[in-house]
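Note to self: the last two entries modelled the partners one at a time, which told us nothing about the interface. This time every component goes in together.
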Amino acid sequence: MATIVKLLGSVGSPFVIRVQIALKLKGIEYKYVEEKLGHLSETLLRYNPIYKMVPVLVHNEKPVSESRVILEYIDETWKQNPILPSDPYKRALDRFWAKFLDEKCMAAAVKSLFITDEKEREKSRKELFEALQFLENKLNDKFFGGEEIGFVDIAALFIPLFQQVAELQLVPGDKFPKLHKWSQEFYNHPVVKEIMPTKEQQFGYFKARAASIAAANNAAASK
Amino acid sequence: MATIVKLLGSVGSPFVIRVQIALKLKGIEYKYVEEKLGHLSETLLRYNPIYKMVPVLVHNEKPVSESRVILEYIDETWKQNPILPSDPYKRALDRFWAKFLDEKCMAAAVKSLFITDEKEREKSRKELFEALQFLENKLNDKFFGGEEIGFVDIAALFIPLFQQVAELQLVPGDKFPKLHKWSQEFYNHPVVKEIMPTKEQQFGYFKARAASIAAANNAAASK
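The predicted structure of the combined assembly is written out below.
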């Protein structure tokens, strides 16, 4: 029998890990296919011709891309262990915060990791801390999803991930006590623990990602 | 009795028009409250302290912001005349395309309208046309939603909107015959027609928006 669920990913990508955690929480068996950044397969390019990026979830031969879209697809397709709440207002809030995490927090976090100009890096760090303060204020339970991991927790996983690899204190305990505790709780959740890459794998991903961005920039500059 | 549904908006904002069309399609009565760009009300800032932007939908005193999040909230709260399809895979595709419209098409369209540097404007126009080609290829029915207006149509409304005000051929008929026809069909839909602002209102919005962006940039530069 053909594999029904396939995931095209790259080890260390926070967007791919999101999908892996969701599939694991739901108990869905899947085949993982590693894509090499900078040398993506024909299959990946056919499935995601617009963004040319991982993750792509393939279910019954039909591809879904963009991690937040994939998470919602998984939650609507397999109903067990819901990732989003059932109440429309709470669902709206979860979507709002996940979008906020991508647009405001992750972008600033990546900049504070990779930008070499010290002044620019400081600026990103300030932006990141301002954004994280909103999350700190919002967090009232063990997880954003309450007693269990939910959509916002999964979206926020880059916080403990980046922290592990960069030895960068994204959520220092004295500044963000609730997020700091959340970060540890999340990391120690059995499903998360099983999926999170090792420090070495994570380094490998960042290196490949930086090289692929540099190559794209060089190609654009030489046009 | 207190107003149950309120919409904080600014006439001419494509994001606000999205919400107005969705409410109208669903037949929901609501109170519209105009917000002046650059002089937002205390209420708006309290309801949307993070982005400080319209639209904000307030339902039973509870605020929802970010237009795509609001559209999904409306669709889940009032079930009549669905905006999103019921099938999970089709829902995922709709979410993918709406996100793509915001991230790739609208950003490029705004740049091709506002950037004064000719070379940069040309670059944005090229990016926009590349992105629109994907939409052209996707469109097979009267609307993206099939025979009726759906999530992707509502997300794409900036195309006829910008076209009307800027006399900018975003979707010239010889280049994008299907999108060109769609743009006219969409604009002539009775619900859309009733809600779309006049050319003068639209000009007013662009002027206020440009002024408010310039003011924010000046404030940032003088810090």
